[in-house]
From TrEMBL:
Domain of life: Bacteria
Region (Domain I): 1-64
InterPro entries on file: DNA_helicase_Holl-junc_RuvA_I (IPR013849), NA-bd_OB-fold (IPR012340), RuvA (IPR000085), RuvA_2-like (IPR010994), RuvA_C (IPR011114), RuvA_C_sf (IPR036267)
Domain (Holliday junction DNA helicase RuvA C-terminal) ranges: 171-216
Domain DNA helicase Holliday junction RuvA type: 1-62
Membrane spanning stretches: none
Compartment(s) of residence: Cytoplasm
Keyword annotations of the record: ATP-binding, Cytoplasm, DNA damage, DNA recombination, DNA repair, DNA-binding, Helicase, Hydrolase, Nucleotide-binding
Name of the molecule in the record: Holliday junction branch migration complex subunit RuvA
Region described as Disordered: spans on this chain: 146-172
UniProt source species: Tropicimonas isoalkanivorans
NCBIfam families: ruvA
Subunit note: Homotetramer. Forms an RuvA(8)-RuvB(12)-Holliday junction (HJ) complex. HJ DNA is sandwiched between 2 RuvA tetramers; dsDNA enters through RuvA and exits via RuvB. An RuvB hexamer assembles on each DNA strand where it exits the tetramer. Each RuvB hexamer is contacted by two RuvA subunits (via domain III) on 2 adjacent RuvB subunits; this complex drives branch migration. In the full resolvosome a probable DNA-RuvA(4)-RuvB(12)-RuvC(2) complex forms which resolves the HJ.
Length: 220
């Protein structure tokens, strides 16, 4: 299984790149969002990959983070969502937007992806809503892996984990970390998690994240 590739971008297509690794070129399909974020032709890039094997073809799909790769795995587990639809969803929303939409049950956001109709969008939300908070809570840990290799070196130092309150209960700390990784400011995230915790002191991480997201959602 090819799980990660790091090399030089030799060619950029409309939905893929040709990544040359040790003299071998790999065609890696990526979302629109990922394609725009990659460096120019001739420069170095690294992608986590998922290999799709069919009778008549082998296809590699690439993702800039392990969190996005995990979302691809979950999305394609839903009946009716193939690799193309998954890439459309991730291209339209990104991993954070996908996490937020599914955790909140916002199937209209999923429907915004090209080729995803309302019934399919609702199925995605219904089947994955209980799994979304776990992926969100994993985001901090996934961000702490070693960063992409640079030419001439094997690794770069691993990122340091985001600090979380040492005295806070585990579920509260995990929920806070997940919200911060989604881009919320620590103050507003902490307030939302604390409010959710006060309403249900026994709530587990997933429930705290869902409740805090509802409190952070724009009103009106």
């Amino acid at each position: 299984m090819i799980g990660r590739l790091a090399g030089r971008i030799d060619y950029r297509g409309p939905d893929h790149v040709l990544l040359v690794v040790s003299g071998v070129g790999y065609i890696v399909h990526v979302s629109d969002r990922t394609l725009m974020s990659l460096p120019a032709t001739g420069e170095f890039a690294a992608l986590y990959t998922d290999l799709v094997v069919r009778e008549d073809l082998l296809q590699l799909f690439g993702f800039p983070t392990l969190q996005e790769k995990e979302w691809h795995r979950l999305l394609t587990s839903v009946q009716g969502i193939g690799a193309k639809a998954s890439m459309a969803i991730l291209g339209a929303l990104g991993p954070d937007g996908t996490s937020r939409a599914i955790a909140l049950g916002d199937w209209t956001a999923i429907r915004a992806a090209p080729g995803v109709g309302p019934k399919l969008a609702q199925r995605v939300v219904n089947e994955l809503k209980d799994k979304a908070p776990a992926v969100m809570a994993m985001a901090g840990a996934l961000a702490d892996v070693v960063e992409p290799d640079a030419p001439g070196s094997d690794t770069r130092p691993a990122r340091q984990p985001r600090p979380t309150p040492a005295a806070a209960p585990a579920a509260q700390s995990e929920a806070l970390s997940a919200l911060i990784n989604l881009g919320y400011q620590q103050g507003e995230a902490a307030a939302a998690v604390a409010e959710a915790r006060a309403e249900d002191p026994e709530a587990e991480t997933a429930a705290l994240i869902r409740s805090a997201l509802r409190k952070l959602a724009p009103k009106g």
